[in-house]
## 1
Amino acid sequence: MKPTIYDVARAAGVSTATVSKVINGTGRISDKTRKRVTEIMEELRYQPSMVAAALTRRSTSTVGLMLPDLANPYFAEIARAVEDRGHEFGFSLLICSTDNDPSKEEKYLSLMVQKCVDGIMIATSTGQDGLLRELAEQRMPIVAISRELPSLPVDTVMVDDFMGGYMAGKHLVGLGHRRIGIIAEKLGASSSPERIRGCRQAMAEAGIEADDSLIAEASYTVDGGRKAAARLLGGGEPPTALFACNDVLAIGALQAAFERGLQVPEQLSVVGFDNTMLATITAPPLTTVSQPIQDIGRRAFDALLQEIRGEKRTKQRLVLLPELVVRRSTAPVAGGL
Amino acid sequence: MKPTIYDVARAAGVSTATVSKVINGTGRISDKTRKRVTEIMEELRYQPSMVAAALTRRSTSTVGLMLPDLANPYFAEIARAVEDRGHEFGFSLLICSTDNDPSKEEKYLSLMVQKCVDGIMIATSTGQDGLLRELAEQRMPIVAISRELPSLPVDTVMVDDFMGGYMAGKHLVGLGHRRIGIIAEKLGASSSPERIRGCRQAMAEAGIEADDSLIAEASYTVDGGRKAAARLLGGGEPPTALFACNDVLAIGALQAAFERGLQVPEQLSVVGFDNTMLATITAPPLTTVSQPIQDIGRRAFDALLQEIRGEKRTKQRLVLLPELVVRRSTAPVAGGL
DNA sequence: TGCCTAAGGTTAACCGCTTACCCTTTAACA
DNA sequence: TGTTAAAGGGTAAGCGGTTAACCTTAGGCA
């Protein structure tokens, strides 16, 4: 049987209170006693039970992380960043993949409450009513990552999607493109609309009229991107450049181009978004708008931690700047400027 | 304040024991009482605390998952598979990325013990002494995923690495290749050696002599693979085919080929291993040995669950068969057979 | 010498559930 | 009518820690 604090106390000839104080470095304990207790703990290979401690402390040192799919590289990278930052402060993670399924969201949210997480990070577009709203109103620490939960009193850490879209658009316009297709995620609550708006702003500044026939919706998969791109490229007057609202979709676009025998970037430029590791391994490597994923994960955790510790009075909204990473999937429009 | 079981009991005019029985469906409770208690719980929005329950039940319904890096697609996919299977049975996951750093491994192992996980899944090559051995000997449920822990009494779920290597080798040999370079992970305890052995077996059967100058070690990154491939391709009599011990390394090989101006597959064939999503997005798409990742995750969890429930007497070693997925990165050797 | 205080511990209640065991009521049955 | 037993629920002792409050001792100081 695993030794308990009682075993340690008995062996050391002290009370459990003393042992507890030694473990936590609280209270006043003489060096002599501290040393003896420490030795006994070592000897018994004692590991304090965090679940018992959690019960009295009313804190589990665990935070929940809800995301659409852990197998998606973007979210896996986010999760890793949060994990690392959390561990630095002694927190561990309860990760749940929702597949953007509202019923799973609700179920996992409830799980997190039952497991008594100290706070929740949400990287999934989610219903803003039901349990989540209830929790937010009860002041459960919550931070939204990369997606907004506009009607809820929670912290938000995200990238400037509009600016990112603008950068992508500007880049393409600068290369002389005037027919620019856009591939967007389906989800209403996703970040695509802002990215699109940004891209169109850049186009508008160059005097290019918005053309809704140049926007295609896709499901959040490579294949979704491929099909959407195929639709755009198969149209009457096909675009010379494609802006995909994330790297996964951009990869689909690359594939669609390949299938039509279009050279990238000579005959078609492609820009992605996120700058996941995927962008570095495509051929050609993908020009993309880079999200500071490490930073997002870290800041999001830090914000949550402040909430947990009650160090904050007001909800904050942190918007980080994206950066354009030019690789080899974009080039001046065919035929020159 | 969150309502407790006492609040529910009081409001329903019953004892906490009764409420507990209603929650867990144990004991004998009349329909009338059950209904009343259920209604009160709903009304109070009561969520039972799993941490309190864990303390008395001595079970947290949580399993630990140790892997090298959650941001690595292969492990992210494993994690996702385990997560899904776990949730089916009411278990959640405590994920820790070790970066193959022995000190982190030890630290996270200790964390898992303190958090009282019901079992541990290890997908990281790890020191087999220290805490892990101790736990294994104390019959803590443990299963090794994809890597063996030979000297420890634990269950193992893995793919037949030898066979996978053999399939890759056979495929290349069948295409007429005779100079086949191999890119291996560095780590001693990794699965590379078996994969290499399999590949060489296939070569030997074709009458090709082993040539150690055709093996290059790489760190587990795209860049590592790129450098290793560059070394092999830069040699005196360069190989016409490359077998990389995983997809990440294979992608590096693809890049190295591109840099040298070698056409894949016309001038160089490349085979990977794992069949992660990466293999589908490279250009050309990667021929690779497929691991049944879903299956591995699922089986591994099932084995662990059996251990946890004490339904098993003997340790088992489950070896799944890989499958060769031929895409477009391999072709008959230049110059024909 | 007497009083005060700091140092170093101890006591015991409590955290929110679970569960072995016990008690009461009622119906069945001989 | 008395006996049993099943049904339905209550009692209370933990689970392994934490912590407020309290106790004891000894040194400092007037």
Note: Residues 55-159+293-321 of chain B form a domain with the Rossmann fold fold (CATH 3.40.50.2300).
## 2
Amino acid sequence: MEAKTLLKEHIAKTVSLTEEEFDYFFSHFKSLSFKKGQTIISAGDKVDCEYFVISGCLKAFYINDEIKMYILQFAMPTWWTSDYNALYNQTPAAINVDCITDAEVLCLSNSDREKLCAEFHQVEHFFRWRTNKGYIASQKRLLSFMNNNVKIRYEELLALYPQLYNLVPKHLIAAYLGVSRETLSRLYNS
Amino acid sequence: MEAKTLLKEHIAKTVSLTEEEFDYFFSHFKSLSFKKGQTIISAGDKVDCEYFVISGCLKAFYINDEIKMYILQFAMPTWWTSDYNALYNQTPAAINVDCITDAEVLCLSNSDREKLCAEFHQVEHFFRWRTNKGYIASQKRLLSFMNNNVKIRYEELLALYPQLYNLVPKHLIAAYLGVSRETLSRLYNS
DNA sequence: TTGGTTACGTGATGTAGATCACATTCTTAT
DNA sequence: ATAAGAATGTGATCTACATCACGTAACCAA
């Protein structure tokens, strides 16, 4: 689907904008294409934008002591991603975002988002709801982390995002679950 | 500090409301007092409100198989708490909220919040920022969970909220860290 | 085609933290 | 004041998962 249509339908699920309002809104986004493996945000970078995924799959991840990787989020079409801490607080990125597959994204700068939120009450409403959903999902994941062992978390993940199983290598799924690739391998071969 | 003043100063950190606007905003809150140990939300309940803490300390927690407790959040003065998943999606509460100490809270219904957000762009802005902060904090905690062992998480918690050390029993701190009370005990006696 | 890199499987062993059990102290209610 | 229940400390043992080590298969790029 075309980028503009995808974003339009995504927004329309939460708020109603007129044709002109949406066109104006959309004019603040920049379209970017990336190849598999390319980096969108590197730890240490200044972060100016958040990204809306049109096609492909990204990962947002943290690297500990240059050794271990923990995946905070897989970003699929219609998902938003960035280092929001860095973006909102104007601090250097602590996490990285890169492309698991070739990807097309729309990029919105922090200042444009704030401008659009100030100009259109409806846009502010949209972003409030989007963040709400993210917050709730994050709380759920935290709880699952505390409450469930790896096997259950693995099954939850596949139930929620079945497409991941074929799309992303298993060691990345392990990095999302916070478990070693060996343990994950033993888990589903039994 | 008086409830109204506390809320007013809290809101003023993010947005500017006129005297009349704030009075109108405030008129939607109900003041409630609880004794230590009293329950505010029980798992299974319908959840209608979110709560702004004026004094005392609450905990929001999940109970697994009627045995293990995991604390999602300690709520101190000027913090907001509820079961947001239940509140926004109108599902029965999955988590509980109760009082670690005697507490005074202001209660705002979901419908009143949405009404106020629709009526005042500034109020919508305030709630967007509040949720943003919560989301960022939740992501940080998740990352710390994956990345750090109990000792480091314990030190992080005390660095962030030194007042907790004297205020809440250690087994609750263990429940926040997702660790057994025995392990926590051994940890800080060494 | 070949050589190098990445993904994946699997055994052996190590370890952080859980669980169980029981003792001690501190709170709270009557 | 006293009894009962909460909170805490500490040893012994168990277990889920990490780590290390090595092997094979798949996927590339020259």
Note: Chain B touches chain A at residues 62, 64, 68, 70, 72, 84-85, 88-89, 117-118, 121, 124-125, 127-128, 131-132, 134-136, 138-143, 145-147, 178 (CB under 8 Å).
